[in-house]
Design a protein that fits this description.
The protein has 304 residues and is of the alpha/beta class. The protein is 41% helix and 13% strand.
């Protein structure tokens, strides 16, 4: 990003020291970078971001693999500066404190309590810079304890239960949950920066990813609380639109996703698949009828 562009963005002049790794924290700081902030990513050769090595575990050639060119790492860390600090060494911790003292925001997603034990907790950082903003990202919050990965807090937050097919097990939610929590972190930091601009006060943001995932299932929680039972898993279906699914195409593992929202779209689909007779047929004329006769609709689209 050129300076001519950056200095017109809302977070131009904001510096972020990013001690996070993998998905949630790095994606959040990347979003802030897109808004003009200067983001400095902190790693070490002893503890590099796991995303640097992620592609190798997915079949990349070991001999040709370059830790500095991992597509997964680059996707989460566009436009960032970087510095190597092994925080097991006192001198590195002192340098980390110096970096925090000249930064507006610090982000970390270590196991709760680890950042403080390294000598970088909120009270320490606030002593260095009273209006510092620290965003601490964890699975269950600062008091929740223990490490947590996306699959864990997605399940604990209730989101995994809603994912999957009606006759199957709950689905596994990983990277989409990490990215959503990263967006929540970025939004929280922007709110804290706005608060600081109005009051001069910094903030400690205790972002619990389990709470974020629970926010995404609010309707299902209300349904259960009202005594209406658990919301059933729906696979690829939609409660109002129909058809709304993935359908096989010719060839191996070739698919098309179709979502019909209106009568006009249904008429166009029927013409496209050569089944105009389905436009006004009682079993398929309305979305409600099509949901009730899903096998008929699926067979017609599948034959196409």
């Amino acid at each position: 990003m050129s300076y001519a562009v950056a200095d017109r963005l809302p977070l131009y002049g904001v510096r972020i020291a990013d001690f996070s790794w993998v998905g949630t924290g790095p994606f959040g700081s990347e979003l802030l970078g897109f808004l003009g902030a200067e983001v400095i990513k902190v790693e070490s050769r002893r503890r590099p971001d796991q995303m640097r090595d992620y592609a190798r575990s997915h079949g990349w050639d070991d001999e040709a693999y370059d830790l500095d060119a991992s597509p997964y790492f680059c996707e989460m860390n566009l436009g960032k500066l970087g510095v190597g600090l092994n925080l097991k060494h006192p001198r590195a911790v002192e340098l980390a404190r110096q970096l925090a003292a000249v930064s507006d925001v610090v982000i970390e997603n270590m196991t709760p309590g680890t950042f403080a034990r390294l000598g970088l907790g909120y009270e320490t950082l606030r002593g260095l810079k009273p209006n510092i903003i620290l965003c601490s990202i964890s699975g269950r919050g600062a008091q929740g304890g223990g490490p947590a990965y996306a699959g864990i807090f997605a399940a604990m937050g209730g989101l995994s239960y809603l994912s999957g097919y009606p006759d199957g097990l709950p689905g596994s939610m990983r990277m989409p949950v990490d990215l959503t929590c990263g967006a929540y972190a970025a939004t929280s930091i922007v709110a804290a920066l706005w608060h600081r601009a109005q009051t001069g006060e910094g903030q400690f943001i205790d972002l619990a990813c389990q709470e974020v995932t629970t926010c995404l299932v609010g309707d299902a929680i209300l349904r259960a609380a009202a005594g209406l039972g658990n919301q059933p898993r729906a696979g690829n279906e939609h409660p109002r639109w129909s058809p709304h699914d993935c359908y096989p195409c010719q060839g191996e593992d070739e698919w098309i996703s179709i979502a019909i929202r209106t009568g006009e779209e249904w008429r166009a689909l029927c013409q496209a698949i050569g089944r105009p007779d389905l436009i006004e047929a009682p079993e398929t004329a309305t979305a409600e009828a099509r949901r009730a006769h899903k096998p008929l609709v699926d067979a017609a689209i599948g034959a196409w």
